[in-house]
Amino acid sequence: MCGRYERRGDKQKIAEAFYAKGGLDEVDFGEDYDCAPGSIQPVVWMNKEGERALGLMRWGFKLPKKLLFNVRSEGIATANFWTDKFATNRCIVPASSFFEWKASKKGPKSKYEIKVLDREFFGMHLAPWAKRFFVDLERAKSADFYARVGALGRTFIDVETEAFAF
From CA 14, how far away is CA 42, in angstroms rounded? Predict the structure, then answer.
């Protein structure tokens, strides 16, 4: 995943969609149609009182020589950098869609927006069929681009499902 996504909706809609009760008075943000790595974005996290709250965080980890924002699902629980972060410091990033680019033999890359129709945010509002849809896309071996989108979507659904378990 390239790391760019879109977030529509105000803080009240996001709080309702992800059952966040805290932090509403402390944060202020508008819609963002091109959330890029390094930008400050709203997240839903578990506060000290044990309730979901809205907060603002940088999209990615600022390291001395680079900005780290991508990780493969395989091995995230055992990779040196991610082990403790994955185990104890998770949050939900409210997104309405995300973007992927496909290389072109001629000219610039083509940008594709991937979203669930008729849903404002990813998360609990994903229909039960969403994972099955991405698994089917992933098996489209004759269409390399769709197979990669399927693998990414399936991983995204797995991460979202795990995030709601915290």
Answer: 9
- Residue listed under structure tokens 């693998």: 151
Every domain of the chain and the residues it spans: 5-163
- Average pLDDT taken over every residue of the chain: 78
Q: Which of 43, 51, 45 is nearest to 94 (CA)?
A: 43
The token pair that represents 18 in the structure block: 């992800």
CB 39 within 8 Å of CB 31: no
Distances (CA, A) of 8 to 41, 97, 161: 12, 9, 21
Q: Specify the pLDDT at position 164.
A: 56
The values of phi and psi at residue 17, to 5°, are: -65, -35
Tell me the C-alpha distance between 19 and 166, whole Å.
13
Question: How confident is the model over 5-12, as a mean pLDDT?
Answer: 88
> Residue 104, class by beta-carbon neighbours within 10 Å (0-12 exposed, 13-18 middle, 19+ buried)?
exposed
